[in-house]
Structure formats: C-alpha cells, structure tokens
Amino acid sequence: MIGKLIGWLRKQPQAAEIPDSLWQEIVSALPFLRALDADEQQRLRALAQEFLAEKEFTVAGGLQLSDEICVSIAAQGCLPILELGLDYFRGWVGIVVYPDEFVIPRSVEDEFGVVHEYQELASGEAWAGGPLLISWRDAQMAGAGYNVVIHEFAHKLDMLSGEANGVPALPPEISRAAWQQILLASYEDFCAQVDEAEASAQDTVFDPYAAENPSEFFAVMSEAFFEMPAALRAQFPAFYEQLAAFYRQDPAARMLPANRLQ
C-alpha cells in the first residue's frame, strides 16, 4: 500500500486521504491523539496528509518502509503545529527512519584546540536545513512520556528562528525576553533537580537529558507538554503557559477526564 498511498498523496494531496482504518489504528494507540476532539482529529489528519505530500521518507538499516511508519510519524510530528500550520516545517524535506538506535559520528574541539572524534548512539537527530532522523523502535514507545518524534520536530521549530537555543520562532504576541527569562529559570530549576536526584539515586519526573542545554530542555518539555501535560503544568507552570501560548494548545485541559469522555 505504501507506494499507492504516498505516491498518490504527492501527486494529488488535496484529493488523497489517509485510509480510515490506518488513521484510527494510529490514533487509538496513542493517548495524546485519542484526547483530541473530533474537529482536532480531523484537522490533524488533513495536516498529516499535507505533510506526507510535501516531505520525503527514506529508510536505513534494512527497515522496510510502510504506511504505518509514515502516517504515525506524520501524525505525531504534526501535532505541535496543529494550530500553527505546515509553514512552520518549511526549509527541509527529508525524514530518514532507522529500525533502531543509530550511530552518529561527532567531533568536538577542546580548550586547547584539539579536535576529538567519537561516535554517539542516538534515537533521533534534527539537522539544521537538512533531514530529520528517527528510530522507528523509539517512535513506537510514544504514549508514556517519551516521544522521540515530537522531540525532534520541536528541534526543527527551534531551528526555524536560527541556532537551536530553546527559543522557537515566536509570534509577535509572545515576548522573546519573557520567554527567555522563563525558559532559563525553568531550565536552571530542572538542572538543580537532576543534581539532587543523582545525589540521592532517585529519578526525576522528566527525562534528565533535558538538563543538557536549553534547546534540549525545550524539546523534552515539548514531549511532556503533549504526553504529560498535567505533570508539566504542576512542576513548571510558567513554562507550561509559555508553551501553551506558542503551540496555541492546552493539552492539560484536553486530557481532563470529563473531556476525554466526550
């Protein structure tokens, strides 16, 4: 089916539709998509179709490309731009999907000017102006507070404004100065939590990888925003409000039991 679906979408994106059975299968498997109301699900589906018509999927490591892979990644990746539009993913085309974690060669120059080369195991990677890399195995772990797809797509939003620094392309109504102040305060608070957790051999509520730098904090908290909104709002209420203003969504309200019964 993959050739028929993706090929048809690219030729006639306005006429093509993701099959009902496939869409329902993907939505039903992901709690944060099930929480969307009927109108939101319909608009997300249309956005995912446009995304599939515009982007190009390739695979590596012997993985077989399938409709499930393409539509699942498109649905999760487009959730952050549900109220922003596909233009927020402009400037890049490719998505490379690996079967599992993959190795990325790195190099870093130390304070003495010596370049050290090493290899890093990764589950996802977003390249400025280039493709987005995803581990399909990790993408299938979505739904329990860990979402590599949303994480990497958040990096793309961060890069839209230039260097990845945790400050995405903000609309005029959101103060860049206020965003930076709240971002850094929340980030420093989280770094202190990670240090305390390590000292006491305990776990943090959110992935400690968020303490790497403000850009990773933004990406990890974007995962939490859509998958664990109540926990994020309780721990970092000011940053939750900033994310809600940027994404123009309120997942914590969406996930309330009364709303989920609708």
TrEMBL record:
Alphabetical list of CDD domains matching this protein: Peptidase_M90_mtfA
Protein origin, superkingdom: Bacteria
InterPro entries for the chain: MetalloPept_cat_dom_sf (IPR024079), MtfA_fam (IPR010384), MtfA_N (IPR042252)
TM regions (residue ranges): none
Signal peptide: none
UniProt name for this protein: Zinc-dependent peptidase
UniProt source species: Candidatus Accumulibacter phosphatis
